[in-house]
Amino acid sequence: MLRMVVSLKWFPRLQAFSSLVEPRVAFHARSRVPYQHTTLFEHIPPEHQAVRSWSKDRFTAWSTGIGSETATFVATLFATPL
Questions:
Q1: Are 5 and 22 in contact (CB under 8 A)?
Q2: HSE (CB half, 13 Å, CA atoms) of 78?
Q3: Contact 63, 70 (CB under 8 A)
């Protein structure tokens, strides 16, 4: 699904993703809990699944390698309570 045009439809309790190639890419219940997703782990691409195991130190090292502004942003995210 690289470089695919998709559409996103929001409903009061559901969200749907579709494309021109696939009639429905995903269909998820919407969560009303802030910062909470409803995507099933099996539906997450493998490269994104791997990030779930990263520690705070790993994110900090990764962001520092990109640049100081990214490192500051990531540090701010960790310092901000959910």
A1: no
A2: 13
A3: yes
- Tens-digit pLDDT profile for residues 17-46: 555 555 555 666 667 777 777 777 887 788
Q: Is 35 within 8 Å of 22 (Cβ atoms)?
A: no
Both tokens assigned to 8 = 């996103």
pTM of the model: 0.50
Q: What's the chain's Rg over C-alpha atoms?
A: 16
Mean of the per-residue pLDDT values for the chain?
75
The answer to whether 39 and 28 have CB atoms below 8 angstroms apart is: yes
Count of CB atoms situated within 10 Å of the CB of 74: 18
| Angle at which helices 56-66 and 68-79 cross, to 10° | 150
Closest listed residue to residue 21, CA positions, set 34, 38, 3: 3
